């Protein structure tokens, strides 16, 4: 196929996609006009203005909340935040309705601006906040506080030696057994929580004791989970 034929084929395909996009827009616009009983132009303008207002209001609230966090830490001079981190935070937080999750965005931004924060600031934390729920935040926070009270955060490489049982977490956080299952599997997917692997003291095979995989019945907080809590929750 010649270059001219390739270009003509590409133009034809683009035109076809443009027509489909226009048809879809007309369908959506017609549907909204039926819902609101207003002309399409007025409906789309109204929705756009509403969305802008909601997002602007949330950003104003975020500005106030982040300032309070920095003031509480005694931060006077802030550092710049890379656009790769700052822009997605603004984008996602302006759409967030859950106050618990909005608080995570606030803390992540505040710690990013705080020159005294020496913890990890990962771009991946953005995706983790987008995929976490309020009850899962409570699980991580309570697990972290338990480890802190037990003075077990000094060496995160030894976190696997301390586990919490399913019943303990359900009682502390106040969730059902079914909700626990869903929450823990999601936290495992994000690698904030891991299954406890216990060593059996009674059975020895070769030079190593037999290990017992506890699944979701007994779990540990991972090093990534600790860093996530420090950057986004604490």
Descriptive overview:
The chain is mainly alpha-helical and 234 residues long. It folds into two domains: 11-130, no CATH class; 134-234, Arc Repressor Mutant, subunit A. The chain contains nine helices and five strands, in the order ααααααβααββββα. The chain has helices at residues 3-36, 40-72, 83-93, 99-113, 124-130, 134-149, 166-173, 177-189, 223-232; strands spanning 164-165, 193-195, 197-205, 208-213, 218-221. The strands form two sheets. A three-stranded antiparallel beta sheet has the order 1-5-2. Strand 3 and strand 4 (208-213) form a beta hairpin. It starts with a helix and ends with a helix. The model has no long low-confidence stretch (mean pLDDT 81).
